[in-house]
Amino acid sequence: MTHQESARPQGQRWSASEPTRLVADDCGPAVLTAGASRRPDSLRVARHQPDPYYWVENFNLDSDYLEWRVDSDEAAHFEATLLVSTAEDTAFTLTNLTTGRAVAAISHGYGWDRLTLGSLLLPQGTSTLRLTRNATSTADVPVKSLELLPTATREEYLRRVRAAKVDSQWLTDARYGLFFQYGGWSYPPTGERKSIEDQCRDFDVERFVAMVLASGAGYVMWSYTWASFEVQGPNPVIDRILGHGDNTSRIDLILTLARALKTQGIRFLLYYHNGHDEDPAWWEKQCFPAGYRETGVGDKSIFERNWMKIISWIGEHFGELLDGFWFDDGAYYYPTDFERLLTAARTGNPQRIVSYNSWVGPTLTSFQDYRSGEDYDGGVEGGTVVGPDGVYLTGRTAASAGMPTTCSTRTGACMSRTRRSCWCAARSRSSATSPRLRSPGRRCRSRR
Question: Which of 164, 230, 383, 408 could form a disulfide with 425 if both were Cys (CB 3.0 to 4.6 A apart)?
């Protein structure tokens, strides 16, 4: 036998002590992370950063499995979507061990996929769900999570997704932009690093704007934070959280840049890093849950509350000068109520576009407007059909661009955006392999 076909160790991991609660009228998917599943010991969590949860690796044999326990408040159908990466055609089956019912679909080997398995009936009370695959593979098959969306509220959920989209035609029309990461972490060509106050005081805004104009760029993305959690401008929310103002500047360079660029017709976006890397004093204040990296489960309420206060203040401070946000390290947020985060991100400008960077992993939410584009080389991925106007029509790219599999997207330079007007233009390949159970529709319960 090859190494991949050899017997697995008999040990098992069972991370979730209590079943996940499912509510049949919930307006959004319940997320079952692979890290919180019962599984053989050989299926291990990927570790790329100290705190966030990424996915479980080594799901390679037909004898491998992931199991979750769920507790539904009533008998109901739930649409199951698997966040998985494959390098070749691979069939996955989700079975309710309590009832014997199962749904299945094939991932066609295009890398990360949001694979719709189908609609599974769950009885009231506790059920055990088991995910298996069809054959042994020499390529690693990472699994991030299983999402369960109540079928009865699916249309209402998609209506909310559609309603959350804003017109981002300008991103396509801009053709390309310039992205800058200049801040408290930066050094001049020679000499010592400047303080953020000196950076703000010495920056030649007029010369910078002239350079952007000469480049022909239609927008600028500026780093609000990055390697150090320092801001080239005021932010009283950050000051209150830290208990001092050492991480912010009295001189508001970023707002000055936004105003100067706007007078020249150049759009302005902010990149935001949550500060987990280089500032232990800041990160300690976020109370990010210990052990989250292993399971994707834990209390992130303080982290999210601080985030929403900071982002809301930024949005109000910049108003319509700020056209978009690019939130890095989406793995720190997922799973969460992205609809609620989007509301905070649009404070001060309801037309602001938003994206969460999922690195090389799957798209994490439909409540965003464009793809961040990290690890995107500009090519067309397998199974994808692109229309003459740059809209993704079918395939994995259409499914992974921040919308459900029935929506398409529009590309714009190294980013692509969801296109509200082309909603349901075509299905992706994954949705075509498993018919959806249609329901007459049901008003869903808001999570807020």
Answer: 408
Tell me the chain's radius of gyration from C-alpha atoms.
23
∠ Cα 159 168 178 (to 5°): 140
pLDDT band at 7, cuts 50/70/90?
very low
Report d(CA 418, CA 404) in Å as an integer.
10
Position 105: which residue type? A
Share of the chain above pLDDT 90, in %: 65
What type of residue sits at position 126? T
With a CB cutoff of 8 Å and minimum separation 6, the contacts of 88 are 109, 137, 139
Q: What is the mean pLDDT of the chain?
A: 84
Burial bucket for residue 389 (CB in 10 Å: 0-12, 13-18, 19+): exposed
User: Virtual CA dihedral for 175, 181, 187, 190, nearest 10 degrees?
Assistant: 0
Q: Report pTM.
A: 0.85
Nearest to 394 by CA among 427, 433, 352: 427
Q: How far apart are CA 17 and CA 19, in angstroms?
A: 7
Q: Which CATH number fits domain 165-370: 3.30.465.10, 3.40.190.10, 3.20.20.80, 3.40.630.30?
A: 3.20.20.80
What integer is the mean pLDDT of 53-70?
Answer: 95
CB 195 within 8 A of CB 183: no
- The pLDDT tens digits for 150-160 are 999 999 999 99
What's the token pair of residue 430?
Answer: 């994954």
Tell me how far apart the alpha carbons of residues 435 and 115 are, in angstroms, rounded to a whole number.
12
Backbone angles phi, psi at 250, to 5 degrees: -75, -30
Q: Longest Cα pair distance anywhere in the chain, in angstroms? A: 69
Kindly list the distances between the CA atom of residue 43 and the CA atoms of 32, 146, 364, in Å, as whole numbers in the listed order.
16, 16, 22
What residue segments make up the domains of the chain, in order of their start?
12-155, 165-370, 376-434
Question: Which is it for the CA torsion 185, 186, 190, 194, positive or negative?
Answer: negative
Q: Distance (Å, rounded) from C-alpha 375 to C-alpha 250?
A: 36
Q: Output 231 or 277, whichever has higher pLDDT.
A: 231
- Angle between helix 154-164 and helix 338-345 axes, rounded to 10 deg: 20
- Measured CA distances, 418 to 17, 59, 154, 421 (Å): 38, 32, 19, 9
The CATH class that applies to domain 12-155 reads mainly beta
